[in-house]
Amino acid sequence: MVAPGRWKRAVGQTVVLVGLGVGAGVISYWGIREAPPTAPPAEREPSTPAARTVSITMPHEEPVPPLGPNRSTFQTSCTICHSTRLVLNQPPFAEERWRKIVEKMINVYGAPVGATRKEEIVGYLTAISARKQLAGMPEGGEQAAIGRPR
Fold first, then answer.
1. With contact defined as beta carbons under 8 Å apart, do 122 and 98 qualify?
2. Pick the CATH number of 71-146 from 3.40.50.720, 1.10.510.10, 1.10.3720.10, 1.10.760.10
3. Buried-exposed string 49-63: b where 16+ CB fall within 10 A, e elsewhere
4. For range 88-116, the mean pLDDT
5. For the whole prediction, is pTM greater than 0.70?
6. Please, are residues 120 and 75 in contact by the beta-carbon 8 Å criterion?
7. Would you kindly state where each structural domain of the chain is located, as residue ranges?
8. Top-confidence residue, 98 or 6
9. pLDDT tens-place string over residues 32-90
10. Residues whose CB is less than 8 angstroms from the CB of residue 85 and which lie 6 or more positions away in sequence, other chains included
């Protein structure tokens, strides 16, 4: 004899499985049936000027990397994958942070950069970061950054 709680459970599971089977059958039927034929939309003139679609093409210009030591190494190594805009829009990182970023590009993403060129790129990025930091200094600019009185 089957315990009363077990049979209710077995009947409930059977009902759920049958329901899932019927649901899958309905979904597959709707998925394979042919869609009713539709007439192509009639072309008509827009009734108002606002209804027309207008497109424009914006010029694409990349910024020129600022002058600095080993700029050409940066241009030939980094702009293979990155736009100059991406690199120049980074915050002014310290040298160690730039080194970690460049090492990640080499080790994780396979950037074709040797040890000498790696140091040249880090030096360039650090130099332009220092300039950015000086340019963004509040009151006092370079004088305040160096620690000299104004």
1. yes
2. 1.10.760.10
3. eeeeeeeeeeeeeee
4. 93
5. no
6. no
7. 71-146
8. 98
9. 666 666 666 666 665 565 566 778 888 878 888 888 899 999 999 998 898 888 888 88
10. 62, 63
SS3 content of the chain, % helix, strand, coil (to 5): 55, 0, 45
Residue 77 and residue 117 in contact, taking contact as beta carbons nearer than 8 Å: yes
Return the minimum-mean-pLDDT range out of 51-65, 84-98, 130-144: 130-144
| Short-list 139, 113, 123, CA closest to 131 | 123
The residue type found at 1 is: M
Interatomic CA distance for residues 62 and 8, integer angstroms? 71
Contacts of 124 by beta carbon, 8 Å cutoff, 6+ apart: 68, 69, 70, 71, 73, 74
Q: Taking the alpha carbons of 120, 123, 127, 128 in that order, is the dihedral positive or negative?
A: positive
